[in-house]
């Protein structure tokens, strides 16, 4: 139980800390509403679960051993984050509606789900984080039941964390705050995504 607790705490810190996925969920929640944010979060959760399954079954050692796979993921992820930065920058300079209300583009839920998958797919740190977290609690010779509890518990925590961001930031006070500070928020996201994308592309 102590080992499992360490795994769960490490996962909460890793998944709950600000990153491209969480920032994107927050932005969609404030700008488009709860359902679109939950669709994006579902994509992130799906890919996070996939990375976790890879880590817990030991396939992750292949990704770690073959650097070319991680390099390709870094390139794809970096380019995708730069594209998100460009979209956020374009939104920051967009003219507001005549009524002063924030435009709420109707992005298809399927497109948002795919965006969540792509965002986490192009983040090699996600699988490495899962490897590190699992290694904290799964000692050599750990039973399959222990691995299942560690993996399943982290998946449930991930659902709670990513969905929680979608629900929390779609509440009325935060939506009104977004309406007042839309340009600053979008500009900050553009800088954040550009920095994260550049780091994946140019730094190891």
Keywords:
204 residues, mainly alpha, 10 helices, 81% helix, 0% strand, globular
Characterize the biggest β-sheet. none
Portion in strands: under 5%
Average pLDDT, all residues: 78
The tally of domains stands at 1
- The number of helical elements comes to 10
Task: Output the radius of gyration.
Answer: 18 Å
Structural class: mainly alpha
Please tally the β strands and state the result: 0
Into which percent range does the helicity of residues fall?
A: over 70%
Listing every helix as H and every strand as E from the N terminus to the C terminus, the arrangement reads HHHHHHHHHH
Question: What do these coordinates show?
Answer:
The chain has 204 residues and is an all-alpha fold. The protein has one domain (2-74, 96-171). Helices cover 81% and strands 0% of the residues. The chain is built from 10 helices and no strands. The protein has helices at 2-16, 20-32, 34-57, 60-65, 67-92, 109-121, 124-137, 144-168, 172-180, 182-202. Helix 1 (2-16) runs antiparallel to helix 7 (124-137). The chain is globular and about 55 Å long. The model is unreliable at 97-103 (pLDDT under 50).
Write a brief caption for the model.
The chain is mostly helical and 204 residues long.
Question: What order do the helices and strands come in, and which of them pair?
Answer:
Elements: H1 2-16, H2 20-32, H3 34-57, H4 60-65, H5 67-92, H6 109-121, H7 124-137, H8 144-168, H9 172-180, H10 182-202
């Amino acid at each position: 139980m102590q080992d499992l607790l360490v795994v769960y705490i490490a996962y909460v810190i890793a998944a709950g800390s600000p990153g491209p996925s969480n920032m994107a969920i927050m932005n969609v929640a404030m700008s488009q509403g709860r359902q679109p944010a939950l669709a994006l979060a579902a994509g992130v959760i799906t890919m996070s679960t996939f990375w976790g399954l890879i880590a817990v079954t030991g396939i992750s050692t292949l990704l770690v051993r073959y650097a070319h796979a991680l390099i390709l993921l870094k390139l794809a992820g970096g380019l995708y984050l730069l594209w998100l930065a460009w979209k956020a920058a374009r939104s920051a300079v967009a003219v507001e509606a005549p009524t002063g209300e924030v435009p709420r583009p109707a992005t298809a839920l399927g497109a948002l789900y795919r965006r969540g998958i792509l965002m986490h797919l192009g983040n090699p740190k996600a699988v490495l984080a899962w490897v590190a977290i699992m290694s904290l609690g799964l000692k050599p010779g750990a039973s399959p039941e222990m691995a299942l509890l560690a993996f399943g518990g982290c998946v449930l925590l991930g659902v709670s964390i990513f969905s929680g961001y979608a629900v929390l930031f779609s509440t009325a006070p935060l939506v009104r705050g977004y309406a007042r500070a839309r340009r600053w928020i979008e500009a900050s996201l553009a800088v954040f995504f550009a920095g994260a994308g550049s780091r994946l592309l140019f730094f190891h």
